[in-house]
Specification:
Elements lengths: L2 E7 L2 H17 L4 E7 L2 H4 L16 H8 L5 E5 L11 E6 L7 E5 L13 E3 L3 H10 L4 E3 L5 H9 L5 E5 H6 L8 E4 L14 E6 L3 H10 L2 H17 L7 E8 L3 E8 L8 E8 L6 H11 L2 H11 L10
Parallel strand pairs: 1-2, 1-3, 6-7, 6-8
Antiparallel strand pairs: 3-10, 4-10, 5-8, 5-9, 11-12, 12-13
Helix pairs in contact: 8-9
Amino acid sequence: MKKLTIATRVSDLALWQAYHIKDRVEAKYPEIEVVLNKIVSNGDKVLDKPLALIGGKGHFTKELEDAMLAGKADMAVHSLKDVPTYIPEGLELVAVTERQDQSDVFLSHTYGSLDELPEGAVVGTTSLRRRMQLLKKRPDLKVKDLRGNVNTRLRKLKEGQYDAIILAFIGLNRLDLLKDIPYVEKLSLDMMIPPMGQAALGIEIVQGNEKLVEIAKFLNDDHTFLCTQIERDFISKIGAGCSAPVACNAVVEDGERIVFRVMLGFPDGTHVMQERVERALDDVDNLGSTLAEAMIDKGALDLLKDAEKVAFKDEMPQRL
């Protein structure tokens, strides 16, 4: 194999991630030329609506997958949280890079922390997951929709359109965007559970090429692959769509056990179901599916169905 083409989105963060993988592959395989196929995804085009209102899945992955299936790329680098649990025939998700800091982060130009926000303060996020967890902790807050790329969101915060916003720490850190924000507070995993796959990169390849498999496996981290598979199994089993507030996170602690946190409920922070389980590292087979089944037995599917009915109900008449 003399040339490897990587499909990537064109956002600043996606390009950072793609160039990071490009550098790693070229360092390991200097005989291979690595080039990027930069693609504008549907999720990058629609910036004035919550993603939950666009419909369907794979807002940030479909165009990249189409390029691979059309022979225009050999590999795609995704933010794993954007990758649906269903992978199209002809492709495979074979590796997940070592997960970095998974925290969400509170950002403000006025208030030092989430606890310091006054009653009625406006917090920006489009994530139903964050909305649910924020309002569960602080039902007095006003949560306002926030779209646009990272720089646009930060500009809106600086302009005073929001008292605070909540974003993923990892992207801001990779792009060195935290230094100009006066107040930054990382939120603990118990306070703000991340989504499936946060802070890990998914390496998707075209099936049937042993060299591609070898390259992808070189990029894989075993613990991260295990944790994210637990998360993806949970989401797949419970059938959570983009219009349902679901948080789902597995982490290895002390190198010996996995802590798995999940939460689902209404976007307004009510009717919440929450679980936190610990298992030895060698005793986690089917953990994601098993916990999903247990929550389904307690009524999770009906809860999610009702949650989807009320999610963005004010915006639904304008659904795309």
